[in-house]
Amino acid sequence: MPIKPGLFGINKSNRNFTDKENWGKNKFNSSFPVSLTSYLHSKGLENIYLELNKDLKVVHNVLSAESLFGINPDSENLFFAFESPYTQYEQLLIGNIPRDDVVTHNIKSKSCLKALEIKLTALPDNSTCELKEDEYGCELVIRPDTIVYLACSIAMLYNNEKEKLRDTFGDKFEQIADWTEPASVLSYLPIMAEKLDEIFLEKMQFQEPLVLQPVWKTLGKSPQLADNCLDVFVWSNFAFTRLFIDAAKKLNNKINRQSRSLVWLFKMLYDFGKRGQMNHSQIIDELSFNTKNDKAFSVNGKVTYPYMKCDFLTEPRIQKTEIKKIILGGGQNLLSPERRFDAMIYNSPTLFD
């Protein structure tokens, strides 16, 4: 009996991989990373986990697929709900909860387990492709909804301690006359960062996975996969904040996208401490600071490299010859070669010989 098109480890989900539309560019970019993580697990390998330590520095640890998904990847009760809301956060928000890239469910207990943002990233990016191989980095483009999920993950830690959150923030921010005006907010950026760091230090042991970031490596700028081309990095919610808070701390004369993300996160948590809920849509819409809200921020490979630097970034653990063990049943023939990784697989039929 012929094997149907599919992806390793994704046996139950809201995507039917025999249908070509579920191999489109955006869907493949969230499905494949989940499958890759399950494949790592099958080989006895763990994900590279970026965490925040007590010095507010990003450090590397390991994270099992079971910890990432909230259930053993081999469990028959594991269900992947792609582009779905994590309903446990509904109580925290005013208005509709955004959809996350994937939410894991336990079929037996009928419960949501984990919510993950997914970023499938090319290595190297344009900013690092001319550097030495051990200095390659990846670009990350972050959407506003990621900041919402970040805020929710932190708010949940204070769901029964809202007074404590209010005490941490204090009353200094009552003096901000107009949150929508950059001039009113700019001088408060350092203290906002300081207060958020206090929260991270207090709740350090409760940080959890937020962003699943697989990397796929090419031979420099060429459209050829490196022999060792795939690996998985996972950012904890606290470690992820360094991508914009560290940058915001260096600014003192303007609000850019990264410092705006700092304001968004702070205001969501500030409102949650005061009112018990966050109006995330209103905050993002009104606190735009004259910059489009199509994305929260982006950082190139030179920015991400210091955080991600390790042997596995230079030489990922999964070889290109293993892709045929991840994409199954001729699924590569259903790909729409509109993105670089899709196109590379689609135009490399020998990978499946």
Question: Please, could you describe this protein's structure?
Answer:
- This protein has 353 residues and is of the alpha+beta class.
- The chain has one domain (14-348).
- Helices cover 33% and strands 21% of the residues.
- The chain contains 13 helices and 13 strands.
- The protein has helices spanning 25-42, 65-69, 144-155, 162-169, 182-185, 189-202, 237-240, 242-248, 257-275, 280-286, 301-308, 311-314, 340-346, and strands at residues 6-7, 47-52, 58-63, 78-85, 99-106, 111-118, 121-123, 140-142, 209-218, 225-236, 297-299, 318-319, 327-328.
- The strands form three sheets. Strands 2, 3, 4, 5, 6, 7, 9, 10 and 12 form a nine-stranded mixed β-sheet that branches. It has a two-stranded antiparallel sheet with strand order 1-13.
- Helix 4 crosses helix 9.
- The radius of gyration is 21 Å and the shape is globular.
**For the CA atoms, what is the radius of gyration?**
21 Å
Number of helices: 13
Q: List the helices and strands in order.
A: EHEEHEEEEEHHHHEEHHHHEHHEEH
What's the domain count? 1
Counting DSSP E segments of at least 2 residues, the number of strands comes to 13
Sheet with most strands: 9 strands, mixed
Which ranges are low-confidence, i.e. pLDDT below 50, for 5 or more consecutive residues? none
Overall mean pLDDT stands at: 94
> Which strand-content bin applies to the residues?
15-25%
Secondary-structure-based class equals alpha+beta
The amount of helix comes to 25-40%
Distance between the termini: 19 Å
Gross morphology is globular
